[in-house]
Structures are given as C-alpha cells and as structure tokens.
TrEMBL record:
Keywords: Transcription, Transcription regulation
The protein, known as: Bacterio-opsin activator
Domain Bacterioopsin transcriptional activator GAF and HTH associated as annotated: residue spans: 7-141
Native organism: Natrinema altunense
Entry keyword annotation includes Transcription regulation: yes
Listed SUPFAM superfamilies: Sigma3 and sigma4 domains of RNA polymerase sigma factors
Transmembrane intervals: none
InterPro entries registered for this protein in UniProt: BAT_GAF/HTH-assoc (IPR031803), HTH_bacterioopsin (IPR007050), RNA_pol_sigma_r3/r4-like (IPR013324), WH-like_DNA-bd_sf (IPR036388)
Domain HTH bat-type: 159-210
Length: 216
C-alpha cells in the first residue's frame, strides 16, 4: 500500500528558496514539473505578489533559478516557466523520482514549501526524508497516511507553524473580538513582520481551518 506524506520544508538551497525567504508574503503554487534533464527540471508556477517588478528582480537574483519567463497574467497571479540551475540548489527532484515518489501538491509561502507526496511505502519516504535532512533542509512532518484515504481526509488543511502562531497571537490579543481589542500592526510588531504579511498569514490560516472543519 502506498504512503501519503504531507510536510513543510524550508531551505535557501531548495529551488526558489531564496525567493520565498526574500518575499514572505508571496504565494507560489507549483502547477506542473517535468525534466528532460533530471538535473535541471522545468517548473510551471503560479505566483501571487503585489509588486510585479520586485518579484522579477528577486527571481533574477535567485541563484537556484537559471531561466524564467512570465507566460500569462490572471486574477490568480502570474504563471511562470522556470528552469532550475545546475548548481547552488538541492537536487530534490532527482531524489524523489529515484525513490518512486509522486508530487501531488506543492505550495510556497511564509518562507517555506508545504508539500504533499505519495511514495510506494514508508521505507522509500524514509530515504527521501533522510536525504533532505542530510542537505540541511528544515522539515516539519504534518501527516503520514496509508493509501489514498489519507489524502481524501484533507492533509493540506494542516496549519503551518507560522499560521498557527499568528492565529493564536491574534486570539490572545483580542483581534477577533467585536469590537477588536488590538490592531493588526500590534500583532505584526510582535511577530516581526509587515502588516501585509500578517494579514495574509491570518487569511490563509482561517481558510485552512474552514476547509478542515466545515468543507466536506
């Protein structure tokens, strides 16, 4: 029976890791990935960020990316085609392919990747997990489940540490009371991030809780 694994991974040496660190409020959705050369996979990513020129500058400075092109623009964000560099980047693609893994979902925000994958068994996932750890990747395991049943129950709805921290702090400060007992700026100052970043972190966390608790 296959194994479903949901986890959070962060490292400046992962593909787009520097961009995620530089732009904490960015939203990146990996839509598709393939490789004619396993050492340089090509990814199609949907990116949402308020400053398009700032995003382009950040991508140009990202050593984990060799080439990138903006293909389209919609209300869901910009679709980019990116080719990973051969150096300065962890070869995670080749490793999970060799382990028999399948990438089901991959979302980047708050400086890290939220990943959902399927592996043939626990041993194959264990090898991949050990590889990431040996490369210095920070890993937070969200869920392990046998077969497709685990995915049907919604592993992607798990809160990240950053979302949980922001929601907990907002609750403790009375942000959700009517009338509010604190301003967004106070929560942002406590977390050391911008008002925009904390607002988006709260919004994503609330959306995930709704999906987990209310949506069948």
């Amino acid at each position: 029976m296959s194994l479903l694994a949901a986890f959070e991974a962060s490292s400046p040496a992962l593909a787009l890791g520097p961009t995620l660190e530089a732009l904490p409020s960015i939203e990146i959705e990996l839509e598709r990935q393939y490789a004619l050369d396993p050492g340089r996979p090509i990814a199609f990513c949907r990116m949402q960020y308020r400053d398009r020129e700032g995003l382009v500058r950040t991508l140009a400075d990202d050593d984990t990316i060799d080439e990138f092109d903006r293909l389209s623009e919609t209300e869901r964000g910009s679709l980019y085609r990116l080719q990973r560099s051969e150096t300065d980047v962890i070869d995670a693609y080749r490793e999970w392919v060799d382990a028999g893994g399948e990438l089901l979902a991959c979302h980047g925000s708050d400086g890290s990747w939220a990943v959902e994958m399927r592996f043939p068994d626990r041993d194959s996932f264990g090898r991949y997990h050990e590889f990431l750890a040996s490369e210095g990747v920070s890993i937070e395991l969200q869920r392990l489940a046998d077969g497709d049943e685990g995915r049907r129950r919604g592993s992607r709805s798990a809160l990240t540490d950053a979302q949980r921290e922001a929601l907990t702090l907002a609750h403790e400060y009375g942000f959700f009371e009517v009338p509010r007992e604190t301003e967004l700026s106070e929560i942002a100052a406590e977390l050391g991030i911008s008002n925009q970043a904390v607002s988006e972190r709260l919004r994503r966390g609330q959306a995930q809780l709704i999906d987990d608790r209310l949506v069948e």
